[in-house]
Amino acid sequence: MEQKPLRLLWLVLTALALVSLLLVACTRPGTTSSTAANASSSSGSSSSASSASGGNTVKMDATNFEVSSITIQKGESITLVDTVAVPHIIQNGSWVNGTAKPAIEPGAPKVDVQFSGNDTKQIGPFTTAGTFKLYCTIHQGMNLTVIVK
Ligand SMILES: [Cu+2]
């Protein structure tokens, strides 16, 4: 005869469970009220982030680089543009007092690029900070210093 109280208890418990479920179900939609807050803040897509990859360009004329040095960021490459119908051979090193001095600094990318005239080639990337010297083996005094920061 002790089964009736148990059944009652069971009924009460299930009822409580159902009630709590209902409470949870009812609470959920209430909490998700602040949805329309982030409406229209579509600030116009401004300012095209300037200068694409053309930033590290050095032009070469018949006998020299347009600039004697260029500063780039670590990991960047340099685009060399041969603007005339004259060949160049760019390698690691420099002209010192009229003498070609091949040399490759620690961390420098190996550079050995031939231009046949009116062409464009990339050198690098320069992955180490430092100062690196490049020269044209054909044209005396044709030096380019690359500063990597
Ligand atoms: Cu040259």
From TrEMBL:
Domain of life, per lineage: Bacteria
Domain Blue (type 1) copper: 57-149
InterPro entries with a match to the protein in the record: BlueCu_1, Cupredoxin
Region (Disordered): 33-57
Keyword Metal-binding: yes
GO molecular function per UniProt: copper ion binding; electron transfer activity
Record keyword Cytoplasm present: no
Keywords: Copper, Metal-binding
Protein name (Swiss-Prot/TrEMBL): Blue (type 1) copper domain-containing protein
SUPFAM superfamilies per UniProt: Cupredoxins (SSF49503)
